[in-house]
């Protein structure tokens, strides 16, 4: 049995609680939170304060860290890795090298294991980019995201003055995907690969036209895309746009000789982004416990871990059933 | 530089020769063949007899074995692994455990590394089944092959009395794939997943109707499928059906909570099956040389090997660029 602690309980933490119920070789010790434990509505798990985490050290094999990448994980992962094996889903791309270095040092000093930046992107998509590029070095990789809700872009909309609530969908250009798959060579700009669709609830008295203009011209977030803006009521937003679907495609098109075209495609179609991310974290928690048992201390990413470490099934059976 | 020998030179061996030219960190020592070396039309590589392989031991890091699974590899892989690190594409599913055991023992006794059953199925498809099932344990995996030429089924056609030549295409039922992706629960029989299409050249005086009947009722190969048979001239077969396209899809549909559906799809679309398989073998040859340098002796499969071992790029750069 791998004994797991959930640190932080939002959508991702709840997803981990649900995923653990599907994995009979794993058991949940409890949820650890900065909030008052009695205020946290888990689906059955015991809730504890963060202070209680260290007291339960002997009962925990792996901590799955479910905080955010902006402020939680840069501090939490190195800190908790001093005493525990950890998994996180740190996804601030530019800071991954720095985060890895900090966690690696802590893990090696304290003889723990940490697997960082786990999930689907970074994570499974990274794996697929690596496999595809290693197998077909003469080729090109394109990643498409969606259709799905981007939290970052939705947050950007909600920060606009006059906006009460908002949801943003990232939509891949399926026509471009088809063209790439059929072997067309395209010189793609940002605008060609994805569309953005916004559902916005206005505050009373807000100027819809001005807000629309502010959205479509917002640098980094929307200016480089074709963006649709729809104004809806809060009731409509709540009814139609509060699910968290997502997905995407890693498409690698290569050639092995002259005009011999070879296409590798990996696609996820997810009803729930947080529950799927959580399921990836749980599989890597199993790998984490195994690495710790083997005393392979330090920081890892999905790129470093042999596939078999994710499975509860023994090697001989895996060879017999999956090869 | 990883120094590679190609053992056996058919379509797969030629594919390896082509792939090595795309990988600047790898170099080809030569092609080793049971035929008269001067009769082997390589694309530039020196050709040698099998007897010369051992003489060149000090110049070779990895032998890529390009023989067939029926009779070559069961003998060759253990034999050559006595003196060399090896890669093979052994794909007789039922005999993989036995083959692994034989090669593992030889490799451990002789301090060599062998990666067996490499390619796309077994190989990349096996990997994807493992990742998907480990992440979404409550789910179902279906593998679809094609559209592509099945060598085994084409051989079966050519063994029929009265058949001069033949090519068989395996065709996936795309309607079923779409239904599975949209979450339908299906109770699938063999007949539902694939069609078979045969292009057959008759010998003079052969009875077309009798041969058609013999094909569609052939146990194991065709009886369980809906099979179309087309009679064509040798010229038409040569013109339209001598390419070796293939591909397929590993589709895993899972649920993470109640009705939350999550779909993982991995699809290959290959203009040349042997060239793609060869490219996979070459990437794993790189891994093989690395494992040998680390003195991790024994037999491995793709399930045992961390993704980063396939890449010529250093770990820090991989983290920076791919995560």
Tell me briefly what this model is:
Chain A has helices at 11-21, 51-55, 72-81, 96-110, 124-135, 151-158, 174-181, 190-193, 208-216, 234-240, 273-293, 315-322; strands at residues 2-7, 26-33, 47-49, 62-65, 85-87, 113-115, 139-145, 148-149, 163-172, 194-202, 226-231, 246-257, 260-270, 298-300.
CATH class division of the largest domain in chain A: Alpha Beta
So what's the overall shape of chain A?
Answer: globular
Mean pLDDT rating of chain A: 96
How many distinct beta strands of chain A?
14
Structural class of chain A: alpha/beta
By CATH, the architecture of the largest domain in chain A is named 3-Layer(aba) Sandwich
CATH fold-level topology of the largest domain in chain A: Rossmann fold
User: What's the name of the CATH homologous superfamily of the largest domain in chain A?
Assistant: NAD(P)-binding Rossmann-like Domain
**What oligomeric state best describes the polypeptide chains here?**
homodimer
Following the backbone from N to C, one meets helices and strands of chain A in this order, namely EHEEHEHEHEHEEHEHHEHEHEEHEH
Largest sheet of chain A, in brief, is:
7 strands, parallel
Subunit structure (chains A, B): Homodimer.
Pfam family, one (chains A, B): DAPDH_C
Enzyme class (chains A, B): oxidoreductase
Keywords (chains A, B): Amino-acid biosynthesis, Diaminopimelate biosynthesis, Lysine biosynthesis, NADP, Nucleotide-binding, Oxidoreductase
């Amino acid at each position: 049995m791998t004994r797991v602690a959930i640190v932080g309980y939002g959508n991702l933490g709840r997803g981990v609680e649900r995923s653990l119920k599907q994995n009979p070789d794993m058991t949940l010790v409890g949820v650890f939170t900065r909030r008052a434990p009695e205020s946290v509505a888990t689906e059955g798990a015991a809730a504890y304060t963060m202070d209680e985490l260290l007291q339960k050290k002997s009962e925990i094999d792996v901590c799955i860290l479910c905080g955010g990448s902006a402020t939680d994980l840069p501090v939490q992962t190195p800190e908790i890795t001093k005493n525990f094996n950890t998994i996180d889903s740190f996804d601030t791309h530019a800071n991954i090298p720095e985060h890895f270095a900090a966690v690696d040092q802590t893990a090696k000093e304290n003889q723990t294991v940490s697997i960082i930046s786990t999930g689907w992107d970074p994570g499974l998509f990274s794996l697929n980019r690596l496999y595809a590029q290693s197998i077909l070095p003469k080729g090109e990789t394109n990643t498409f995201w969606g259709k799905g809700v981007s939290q970052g872009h939705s947050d950007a909309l909600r920060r606009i003055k006059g906006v009460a609530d908002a949801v943003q969908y990232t939509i891949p250009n399926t026509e471009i995907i088809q063209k790439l798959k059929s072997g067309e060579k395209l010189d793609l700009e940002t605008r060609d690969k994805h569309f953005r669709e916004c559902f916005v609830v206005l505050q009373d008295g807000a100027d819809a036209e001005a807000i629309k203009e502010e959205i479509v011209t917002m640098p980094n977030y929307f200016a480089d895309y074709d963006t649709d803006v729809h104004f809806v009521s809060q009731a409509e937003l709540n009814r139609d746009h509060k699910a968290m679907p997502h997905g995407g495609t890693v498409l690698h098109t290569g050639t092995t000789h002259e005009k011999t075209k070879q296409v590798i495609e990996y696609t996820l179609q997810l009803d729930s982004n947080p529950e799927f991310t959580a399921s990836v974290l749980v599989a890597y928690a199993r790998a984490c416990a195994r690495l710790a048992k083997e005393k392979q201390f330090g920081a890892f990413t999905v790129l470093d871990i042999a596939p078999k470490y994710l499975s509860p099934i023994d090697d001989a059976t895996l060879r017999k059933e999956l090869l």
